[in-house]
Structure formats: structure tokens, C-alpha cells
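name: query_chain
kind: protein
chains: 1
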Amino acid sequence: MKTGYSGLFIPGPTNIPEKVMQAMTLHLEDMRAPDFGGFTLGLLNDLKKVFKTKTGQPMIFPCSGTGGWESALTNTLNPGDKILCSAFGQFSHLWADMCKRLGFEVVRLEVEWGKGVPVDEYQRILSEDKDHTIKAVLACQNETATGVTSDIAGVRKALDAAGHPALLFVDGVSSVGSIDFRMDEWGVDVVVSGSQKGFMLPTGLGIICVSEKAFEAHKSSKYPRCFFSWEDMSNSFKTGFFPYTPATTLLRGLRASLDMIEEEGLENVFARHKHLATGVRKAVDAWGLKLCAQGPEWYSDTVSAIMVPEGHDATKVIARGYERYQTSFGTGLSKVAGKVFRIGHLGWLNEIMVLQAVATAEMAMKDSGIPIELGSGVAATQTHFMQSNYGS
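structure:
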């Protein structure tokens, strides 16, 4: 019989704080009650702070981030429109695949897994598109499969340098609320996030934010849509209500989550994630292993994809961690299946929890025959935590 808490170190769903769980432990309520609209409007206003926007319009759909992707595409574009995107991991690949399946013309750049959005190549292609046939540019800020973070500010600079009017869509599912994101400053037109990562909630809310420019494009979009209709959602949001039954329990949890983010301070949240991620990276160095991310400029502060040595199987490490030590690590996906295991270090997390992940990873790797020295990664992480000025 298993006892104690199981360790959850996948890059989402993440650990749920007690305050958030308590906020969701309530009797179901009337989503048409006179005071519910005011509650929703408060959520939308505080979401603007997380997205760092004054003019953007947040929307909350009862779905995952994938639904947010679809809403961005179908509410702003027309069938056959050209989209520029890049695939450098499973989730950037899936978004590009969605574009193709929805009938758009896709200019897809294949990038080596371990790197991110090819900003220079984006700028070259946009500069050559004199007739502005490209209507949207897609960028995944944090590729969860490979632990790679891309330069969204750089993508905006590429668009501006090319003098190109294309819309900028950003996948912020595993970055918003954990890694710095600046909607207004970076000129992002639609950002997509999900409840199960930086917002520290169960899966079930697709949380997006839409710029004024994207709403203008929406007026001329003829793409079929119903569930993800922005006009239905934005019209209802004027009074704080939804066009269909909302996930009220999750919304109460979101209220508690936003309060926690506000209490800690958004910049402090970012600093904490960087501090904890650095602790994991110190352990990887001590083990003599490498990250999938090919250089510090790509390192993610929300997830580390750790390469196992040639001849070893990362799935054995993951299975051993789960079956023997009650701890879940993220599996390798697609091209990196069996080659990496992932430690998610985002959301409601502290130093002691990270040390648990590092120590368990060491035991699981040692049990799986990977030649590491027990305690080496733990000591490196401890040293970083003790010598850092964070929290002092």
C-alpha cells in the first residue's frame, strides 16, 4: 500500500496549492446569479495583469490549450490564408498540424529539436513577402517537449524590421504565469494559455488574451466557428457572463490562483522559477548529462528535458520513478521518446520539492543502470540553493 504524497514533476498538470483546492471545494452555484457577473469581470481584469496588457481582452473557454489554439486561428483568419510557423518539438508541431488540418496554407520551418523559433529565418521570409500574403505568425514561447524557451520579443522585432502586418500568435501554455510574458510590449495579438500549468489548476480552462488588432481581423474572418466564437464570448463578457455553462468550480480556483500570484508578485514568481530551474540544471551538470535544449539561450525555467546516455532508455527511468518511488516525471515525446525524461519545475513549487525530484531522479537512473554518482546532483542543487541570494 502506498503512503504519503506522490511526487508530481511533470510539466503539467502541476501541483495544486491547498488554497486553490479549498477554493474549489464548494457546492455548485448558479452561473446566472446576479452577482456572478461581477465575479467574472474581476477575474478578467486580473488576468490582464498576468498577460501584461492594458488593452487586450482575456477570454476563458472550458477547454485545454488546444482549444485556445483553434480559437485564435478560426476567429481571425479565412480559409486558405497563409501562416508562418516553426516546428521544434511536439507541441509546436501539433499547432502547425492543426493549421494544416483546418485548411490553411502553412509555411512550416523544421527546426532541430533542442532549439527554438528561428527568428532570423522568420525575418528573412517576412521581408521577402512583399505582398503580405502571410496573415499570421505562430511562435511557441516554451516548447514543453524539449525544455526550450524562444525569444518572443525577437519575433516582434523581426515582424517590425520586415514592416510586415501579420498577426502574431503565441503559445504561452507552459510559460504564462511562470516565465516573463509581455503582451503589449511585444505586440502579441493572441496568446494562448491553460489552467493546468502556471495557473496551478486542474486541466479544463483555455485562457487566452486577444489584442485590438486581432479583434479587428475578426470582423473580416469568414472561418466557420461556434463553440469558440469570439463574438459570442465577448458579447457575454460585457456583463461578466458566459454564452454557455462555464466551469464554475475551476473559476473559483482561478480566483484563488490569481490572488496567490498577486500576493507573491509576478516578478517574484518569475525569479522563483528561474532559481528552481537553475537548481535542476546544476544537478544535470553534476550527473555529467546534457539537456535537450542546445545552449543557455534556449533553457526553459519551467521544464528540463534531460538526455540519458546512449544505450540507455529514459522510459525505464520514468517507470522506475513511478513504480518504486511514487514520483512522476515527464516522458519523452515523438522524436525524443526514450531519449529524455523531463522534470517539470513550474507552478506551486519550492526548493524542498525540487530536491525531492532531483533525489528521486538519481535513484531511478541508478536503478536503471545509468552510471551516475548518488548524491552528486542533490549536492549540486543544495549548493546552488544555499549560495543563492534568492529568498534571503
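note: The radius of gyration is 21 Å.
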